[in-house]
Amino acid sequence: MASITGTVVLAIAGLSAAQLTGRGFPDCSQGPLKNNKVCDLSLDPLTRATALISAFTLDEKLNRVPRLGLPAYTWWQEALHGVAGSPGVNFSDHGPFSVATSFPQPILMGAAFDDQLIMDVATVVSTEARAFNNDDRAGLDFWTPNINPFKDPRWGRGQETPGEDPFHLSSYVHALILGLQGGLNPKYKRVIATCKHFAAYDMEDWNGNFRYQWDAHVNSQDLAEYYMPPFQSCARDSNVGSFMCSYNALNGVPTCADPYLLQTILREHWGWTNEEQYVTSDCDAIQNIYLPHKYRETREASVAAALNAGTDLDCGTVYQHHLPAALEQGLFNVSTLDQALVRMYSSLVRVGYFDGLRVPFRNLTAADVNTKASQDLAYKAAAEGITLLKNDGTLPMKITSDMTVLIVGGYADATTQMQGNYAGIAPYLHSPTWALNHTGAKVYTATGPGGQGNPTTDSWLAVWNWAPKADVIIYADGIDNSVEAEGNDRNSIAWTGAQLDMIGQLAEYGKPMVVLQMGGGQLDSSPIASNPNISALIWGGYPGQSGGEALIDTITGKNAPAGRLPVTQYPADYITQIPMTDMSLRPNATSGSPGRTYQWYTGTPIYDYGYGLHYTNFTASIQSPGDGFAISDLMSNCTEKYKDKCAFTTISVDVKNAGAVTSDYVTLGFLAGTHGPAPHPNKRLVAYTRLHSVTGGSSSTASLKMTLGGLGRVDETGSRWLYPGDYALMIDTQPLAMANFTLTGDAVCLDDWPQPPTPQRQDSDYFVGGYGSSYDGQVLVDGNVP
Amino acid sequence: MASITGTVVLAIAGLSAAQLTGRGFPDCSQGPLKNNKVCDLSLDPLTRATALISAFTLDEKLNRVPRLGLPAYTWWQEALHGVAGSPGVNFSDHGPFSVATSFPQPILMGAAFDDQLIMDVATVVSTEARAFNNDDRAGLDFWTPNINPFKDPRWGRGQETPGEDPFHLSSYVHALILGLQGGLNPKYKRVIATCKHFAAYDMEDWNGNFRYQWDAHVNSQDLAEYYMPPFQSCARDSNVGSFMCSYNALNGVPTCADPYLLQTILREHWGWTNEEQYVTSDCDAIQNIYLPHKYRETREASVAAALNAGTDLDCGTVYQHHLPAALEQGLFNVSTLDQALVRMYSSLVRVGYFDGLRVPFRNLTAADVNTKASQDLAYKAAAEGITLLKNDGTLPMKITSDMTVLIVGGYADATTQMQGNYAGIAPYLHSPTWALNHTGAKVYTATGPGGQGNPTTDSWLAVWNWAPKADVIIYADGIDNSVEAEGNDRNSIAWTGAQLDMIGQLAEYGKPMVVLQMGGGQLDSSPIASNPNISALIWGGYPGQSGGEALIDTITGKNAPAGRLPVTQYPADYITQIPMTDMSLRPNATSGSPGRTYQWYTGTPIYDYGYGLHYTNFTASIQSPGDGFAISDLMSNCTEKYKDKCAFTTISVDVKNAGAVTSDYVTLGFLAGTHGPAPHPNKRLVAYTRLHSVTGGSSSTASLKMTLGGLGRVDETGSRWLYPGDYALMIDTQPLAMANFTLTGDAVCLDDWPQPPTPQRQDSDYFVGGYGSSYDGQVLVDGNVP
């Protein structure tokens, strides 16, 4: 959605009777609502919401006049990695509710590959959100998670996601939503989570292609195989309360006006139909249907297209302004408006909005925000995600009070930089320098060269004075939200020349030297990897409020690193080989595309997806599940409504810590082999679990639950099938263990993907006229540089 | 140079003994300097500076130890359109010296086509600069002007230039430097002006091509014909005190390491050799020679390459850090270092740095800053540049106290937005709303949709409430420095969809409606031009401290507009037809380039270069200079050292105001015709002058001085020739008058352009190794998306 900085107050008018002032809860004990069935706790949410909407006049439905004693409600809260600054969230200036726990960005939490951690974090977020709500400082719907796969390393918002792999994201988001909403089907949801941005949204502004007008062309195979699984997990498997349609068009249709997406796939195919669920637009995405998408000839037709497609809530003002005329023109039925309102208000019923103090979360207070346990969890989340990419044996390294440490770079004394975007106000932001100072060592801190916009050498002279005196040199830099951000994709994935120059000069001192590579998107760190004078390289993402401590503790060994890269680290010239506008995953000889993600990339990554070192060595052995399976047998045991959810087997992996240092170990299960349609991916993640605190010399067992869907592959129509053929399950990126098996018999369809209407967009649908005679639709850039 | 925000303190170590603390003037009355010849006013600057440098030890030359009682001097002041925030400028928090006059950005001052205005503005700037200097709040060198031609509409820094035409820029910059320095060859320069960025610098970050590593490929014809004339005007014709070499490479050689540019062209060909002139690098551009340019294999070789090429001053720290080792390696001679220091200090002698109160400008005080006359001039500069692009007769329009005005858009109540970049602290910033409030009318103000990054409809509902009540609607929007900026080229030259939607909806009310198109780069305003419900369109650029008044006065007729577009307004899809990396001007069938600037563009512009309407009608007639000229005759009268400076003739143009409204009139003289090498440009500007206050029904005479160089054209080697053939002089863009004449005889060379060394860059010059064995030079992106 549109950029948010700090606390913003913005009318999210939508279809609600919400206004900006006078929030709080509705009064069911007295006043106009008292005798409305919406206040009858014995009834189901749908019945209650229907009763409320029945009492609305048409004007109220069109959001002209608030009445009925319904307080204002702002439908826009953010909580990407903690309760965050947003129109509906009001941090206090000081004292209670002036802060909220600020966890790492999802990209680093993804690197932990620890679903329980994610659920714990999400539970803290929803607890703090409820406490804010009780103090009238937040609503109850939160526009998190961003679960679009991080497909292209340039994407400015990849930091908001857990990574590039659709299985990983599906598993992660399930844990997250359960934590945010309080389980799969609780009586009262803790909060309403919102899966965004539906769908195929993963570009901000590359080379004249703006998210607001970009039309993503995606074939059914890539759509079902790559772009959809996280959303399927949200809707079908996690009962998320809300979806957000995106700015972009998909195959010619703006997503907020696309019944194929919002009705056929989301509601029908995934069964997201209990009417306690609604779709919101991204902010002004409905306006964008008219301009710049030019999808309908009039503004009235544009808003009607969105409402009729199933976009219930407008983050913007165009529903409010143009639905009345659209209704007069007969472009939608009032029943469709009613349905949208019922969906929104039944959702509020479901979070206990009308139920007063009977809702258990109503007893949460400021004392439940920023607790010691939450602080510890924020530290843990950072520590678990931090990923060791290079170590010549220097690490772990004690830092003692008799030592001198030089720390240089943009993150040396970072504070809010460590939060990334969509952040709240943290109780503290402990920088690497802060953490170093707490070791008692003598610490020199310098900012180093600037980022891509301003690589100045201002600080260099001081650095050269200090470097000879240092026992250890730490270079903490990379990228931050001045380089990768909402509205701002990267156009380089290399360290800047000034950064490499400074790193190279620091390395020439021959001291123990650690590089901390910070930021969400990866940088090509091959110059660091190949420099023998650089001892170690650690990727720290955006580690949040305790980021500096977690990073320094990783250097000293207080934290034994076990994070894994949740994205591929490509060579710097990867971005010259594929335009950001190419949505296809598979390599393509004609276009020259080397393919996308570790599953399809034909080149050699700098560091592979899932890569991460430890301070010890692990070995693994698989307890084989058997080497041959008849597809008919597997299906005969499958009784799930959605066949892909049926279990294949749970594979036990014995993991031994063959070294001395106690360490977590992320057990990654990749599947490869010749089965299903060619081309075949290099491999694909089908299971993972994180083992905790495996002590030196001991073993632990990882249980990898594999489903039939995990074995299945997607055909060109988007349907998922279980195919006969050879399968190889590999543990870890440089496999520590492997199990081969075969499936025999006829292929069976696990998921019959609904086909798009043909043609999906009629030529006559295109808006070529513009507003009246005054606007020549030709003049808008089509966004494609030839 | 690198971004500056507010007051920055940065060591510009360079070759000076400058430090950051304790500035002020050197003491020639007592102390160590007293008996040094640098304090002898009877000697010439070169002798004086040589004496000073002779007293330096080698360590002092290498900038290790300040001595000799020489105070700190910071070589980095900015004054693009008024004394500006920069490392060497220190505004007071309050009271005297807390503000400086803030003129419009050069792009709008360029639109005035009034060289006298430019000289007047520059004189105010140098006066205020001297007053700041006297209070120890600024140095005496200023890194202005940016005189690279505004070739591509995407360029984020085009706003800093007067436009796209090399003749216009050459004439403008001559007037500017005379104002800044106080004449062509004054005893004491007022300040040292710095022409930047030498050369072919006009891209920030397009599509992965960063200014720091970009290698511009320019042929000799385009170089001499388009990229060089403004710099030739600076060096050869205006005696500018300083040049700045740029970040980019030119034909393989980083400009700060290019002896062809800095020695052959600048110093030898243009005779810029009086040794009271020096070259500074852009900030960290010398570091960039090593990385990311990878032009030399070591840091020492990189700094030596810059010093030997003639870059005297390092804005950065690499001279200080690496010259000592480079000297030990024998990579440069101390005499070269001495020469650089002499150039810098003789320049300081020339501004009277050592001459105490004998310097006439030393009596300037805070009373000479922000005077009433300067305020009036800032208003005049804005008023003269503002350009009327469309008017259906609604304008001028009285705004009276009984009227209601709705003003909407990002510039409706703009303050610092009106300044653009490299701005100082203005005494006031009068927004359009401020000016409207002073009419006594009832004014509604709303921000309108955001820019490219955030086109939200937050403000729309309020607008729809107010629009029906308004007598007049003004929409003031466009782009600002969040869209076009240093480090940030545009990737759209269209209004955003949200802006066009709001404009379209406002127009539907059928009220008198004026659109103010703001910002430096042009936007495709064809939807506004073609909407019959929009009364008028005015381009306002960045109009500075009095911008709002000048804009509203233009609407009401208090100011009769006479500005002309100093750049072409291209259709929005122009940027899909030519990559920013294409440096060639001429159209190219192979690449598909439609050509650059009005001289070569083969398409139809939305508004042409030089376009601008008035509140009256003008007619013109040329007093013909004759219809045939023998080249031999013209040359026999030519006695200038530089033949291109010889006069051809002064053409008198009688301009009549055929209407009723008193108005200025910019007399533009374009030359076309078949002469010189094909292809021939559409036309080219060869003379201009602005007539002031021509009253209705009266006439005035414009004297257009034409030189042989103006008639001349440039061949493929870069040499300028006077060719036989047909010439047509046209007055104005839709010619009001035309004179045809012919030149006969043999072509004569006016300027024998020095040829680049062949090959200009040896393969062996390229740095392919990187730092030691640790860095594989291959990994840096070459910046070109295939």
From TrEMBL, chains A, B:
<dbReference type="InterPro" id="IPR026891">
    <property type="entry name" value="Fn3-like"/>
</dbReference>
<dbReference type="Pfam" id="PF00933">
    <property type="entry name" value="Glyco_hydro_3"/>
</dbReference>
<dbReference type="GO" id="GO:0045493">
    <property type="term" value="P:xylan catabolic process"/>
</dbReference>
<keyword id="KW-0325">Glycoprotein</keyword>
<protein>
    <recommendedName>
        <fullName>xylan 1,4-beta-xylosidase</fullName>
        <ecNumber>3.2.1.37</ecNumber>
    </recommendedName>
</protein>
<dbReference type="InterPro" id="IPR002772">
    <property type="entry name" value="Glyco_hydro_3_C"/>
</dbReference>
<dbReference type="InterPro" id="IPR001764">
    <property type="entry name" value="Glyco_hydro_3_N"/>
</dbReference>
<comment type="pathway">
    <text>Glycan degradation; xylan degradation.</text>
</comment>
<dbReference type="InterPro" id="IPR017853">
    <property type="entry name" value="GH"/>
</dbReference>
<dbReference type="GO" id="GO:0009044">
    <property type="term" value="F:xylan 1,4-beta-xylosidase activity"/>
</dbReference>
<feature type="domain" description="Fibronectin type III-like">
    <location>
        <begin position="665"/>
        <end position="735"/>
    </location>
</feature>
<keyword id="KW-0326">Glycosidase</keyword>
<dbReference type="GO" id="GO:0031222">
    <property type="term" value="P:arabinan catabolic process"/>
</dbReference>
<dbReference type="GO" id="GO:0046556">
    <property type="term" value="F:alpha-L-arabinofuranosidase activity"/>
</dbReference>
<keyword id="KW-0119">Carbohydrate metabolism</keyword>
<dbReference type="InterPro" id="IPR036962">
    <property type="entry name" value="Glyco_hydro_3_N_sf"/>
</dbReference>
<comment type="similarity">
    <text>Belongs to the glycosyl hydrolase 3 family.</text>
</comment>
<feature type="signal peptide">
    <location>
        <begin position="1"/>
        <end position="18"/>
    </location>
</feature>
<dbReference type="InterPro" id="IPR013783">
    <property type="entry name" value="Ig-like_fold"/>
</dbReference>
<keyword id="KW-0732">Signal</keyword>
<keyword id="KW-0378">Hydrolase</keyword>
<keyword id="KW-0858">Xylan degradation</keyword>
<dbReference type="Pfam" id="PF01915">
    <property type="entry name" value="Glyco_hydro_3_C"/>
</dbReference>
<keyword id="KW-0624">Polysaccharide degradation</keyword>
<dbReference type="InterPro" id="IPR036881">
    <property type="entry name" value="Glyco_hydro_3_C_sf"/>
</dbReference>
<dbReference type="InterPro" id="IPR044993">
    <property type="entry name" value="BXL"/>
</dbReference>
